[in-house]
Amino acid sequence: SLDTEQIDRVFRCVMLDHPEIFYLQGYSLTKVTRGGRLEKITFSGAYTMTEEEAALRMEKIDAYVTKCLSGISQDASDYEKVKYVYEYLVKNTEYDEHSEDNQNICSVFINGVSVCQGYAKATQYLLQKLNVPCLMAEGTVKETETHVWNVVSINGEYYHVDTTWGDAAYSFTEGELEGLVGSENIPDINYDYLCIPDEMLRRTHVVDSVIPIPPCLSMTYNYYVQEGIYFTSTDEAQLQRVFADAYATGKSCAQIKCADETVYRDIYRYLIQEEHIFEYLDGGSSVGYVEMQQQFSIIFYL
To answer: What separation in angstroms does the CA of 55 have from each of 59, 72, 108, 122?
Structure first.
């Protein structure tokens, strides 16, 4: 093609589909003209390292991937694979906008420090190794901040997965934890971005991707649905199960995820304003909690 816009689109699509290309950062074009007419375009990749350096990094990447994937059962379902990768990367990666190689998988697999591009490419790379279809989505958050995340396919249904925002310390908005007793026990992982549909994503993200993103409409493999803590009403029996299970498994907190704002307001009124929360707690006359109003979710500290 002699269409530079088409060439750029193809390059971007290749880079979005192939996280293993970590040694390339952009490209250059040389135009050949004759008599004022464009006859030829030469494409050249902007490589950031030699083949030998890339091979050495690949050895380190392979070692990380082998260690990571050794912890998941060969019989795991696709949902279990996605959940495992999400949790593993959140636990083993720190967010730092000044980290090296943060636009590729080296930042995560070699340095353990990255930004959204590194998180998303690492998620994609690992899930591809596990034969789970996974693509990268582009867009914005916080109105103007560019951002990338993933879309996965589980049993023919598509879901958004944002591993970067899975880090609770990163995804909580400033001020949410200020002055909260027990906030030092905030869970390491925020599951609000594990297998969510379009409707949930649009509360915080705007999609603007060169790759067409398939509709994500299902809740079947949403984390909260799978864990039994997704509420469509103020179900007292379900509330009892959630808190009882949290105590039985030694968790430091119990989370409630509501289907919409109406359910959220009703549960908030029932548990907090009317103080029914103490009927579900194992003793104590006070309780610490975090409200995530945009996500219709509440975390209670046990």
So the answer is: 6, 26, 17, 18
pLDDT tens track for 184-220: 556 678 899 999 999 999 989 999 999 999 999 999 9
Average pLDDT over residues 125-133: 98
pLDDT tens for 242-285 read 999 999 999 888 999 999 999 999 999 999 999 999 999 988 77
| Tokens standing for residue 40 | 């030829």
Kindly report each contact of residues 299-302 with a partner whose C-beta sits within 8 Å and lies 24 or more positions away, as own/partner: 299/186, 299/187, 299/253, 299/254, 299/255, 300/243, 300/253, 300/254, 300/255, 300/256, 301/181, 301/182, 301/185, 301/252, 301/253, 302/243, 302/246, 302/247, 302/251, 302/252, 302/253, 302/254
Alpha-carbon distance of 108 to 101, in angstroms, equals 9
Residue 148: how many CA atoms within 13 Å on its side-chain side?
25
Q: Where are the alpha helices (DSSP H) in 70-113?
A: 78-92, 106
The Cα 266–Cα 21 span in angstroms is: 49
Q: Token pair for residue 253?
A: 């907190």
